[in-house]
Design a protein that fits this description.
209 residues, alpha+beta, Cathepsin B, Chain A, 2 domains, hydrolase, Peptidase_C39-like
C-alpha cells in the first residue's frame, strides 16, 4: 500500500483546518445577533488616524479610545460619513474634554453626544435592568471600564447590541478580538469604572432625537 504523499497530506490538513474554523465560527457566533448594524467599527490603531495628535501630546492610538468610541456612535446614529476618530478627537480637544496624560473627561460623552444632536442619558453601574432594556430597544451605550478582562487600564468601549440570551455585543476601539466576543453583562458591570464610586454612572445611553 502506497504511503500518502506530502501533497495529499497538505490538502487533508487544509480541509481539516477549514472545517475547524467553520465549527468554531458556528460555536461562538451563530447564535448571536449582529446587534445594531448601522454602527461602524473604528479602531484607534487604524493607520488613517492612529498617529494623529490627541491634544498637546499623545496620539489617538495611545489615548483616543474616548473620541473613537464616540465617533462610532455619532457616525452610526446620525448617518454622517464625515465623522471619524480624528474629527471627534479634534473637537474634544478644542472644547476642553481632553485629559492630558490620561485620556478624555467623562463629560465628553454627554456633551459631545448632545452637540451632535443625540439624546444622551447617564446610567449607574447598578442599573443592570435599565442597561439591558436600553440595548434591547436598539439604543447604543458607551461605558468606561477599569483594568480587568476587557482592558489593561481605564478605557471606553461601545455596547452595540444584545443577544437573545442577554449577552452583550461590544465594539472595543482597541481590540478586534474583544469586538468579536459576546460578553456576559456581569463582566461588563463588574469592570465598569468606579471612579465615581460604587454607584457611579459610567454608562452613557445614546439614541436619536
Amino acid at each position: 500500500m502506497k504511503k500518502p504523499t506530502s501533497k495529499v497530506i497538505k490538502i487533508f490538513l487544509i480541509c481539516l483546518l477549514g472545517l475547524s474554523l467553520i465549527f468554531i465560527k458556528g460555536l461562538y457566533f451563530k447564535k448571536y445577533s449582529r446587534g445594531h448594524d448601522k454602527i461602524p467599527y473604528y479602531s484607534q490603531r487604524d493607520i488613517r488616524w492612529s498617529k494623529e495628535l490627541y491634544g498637546k501630546k499623545g496620539t489617538i492610538k495611545k489615548s483616543g479610545c474616548g473620541p473613537t468610541s464616540l465617533a462610532m456612535v455619532i457616525s452610526g446614529l446620525t448617518g454622517r460619513e464625515d465623522i471619524n476618530p480624528k474629527v471627534i478627537a479634534d473637537w474634544s480637544f478644542k472644547h476642553g474634554y481632553r485629559a492630558e496624560g490620561k485620556g478624555s473627561y467623562w463629560s465628553l460623552m454627554t456633551n459631545g453626544g448632545q452637540a451632535f444632536e443625540l439624546r444622551v442619558e447617564q446610567v449607574s453601574r447598578k442599573e443592570k435592568n435599565k442597561i439591558l432594556k436600553a440595548l434591547k430597544n436598539g439604543k447604543i451605550i458607551i461605558v468606561s471600564v477599569d483594568k480587568g478582562k476587557i482592558a489593561k487600564g481605564g478605557h471606553f468601549i461601545v455596547l452595540r447590541g444584545i443577544t437573545r440570551d442577554d449577552r452583550i455585543l461590544m465594539y472595543d476601539p482597541n481590540s478586534v478580538l474583544n469586538s468579536n466576543i459576546a460578553w456576559n453583562v456581569d463582566t461588563i458591570l463588574n469592570e465598569s469604572s468606579k471612579n465615581a464610586g460604587e454607584k457611579g454612572s459610567p454608562f452613557w445611553v445614546f439614541s436619536k432625537k
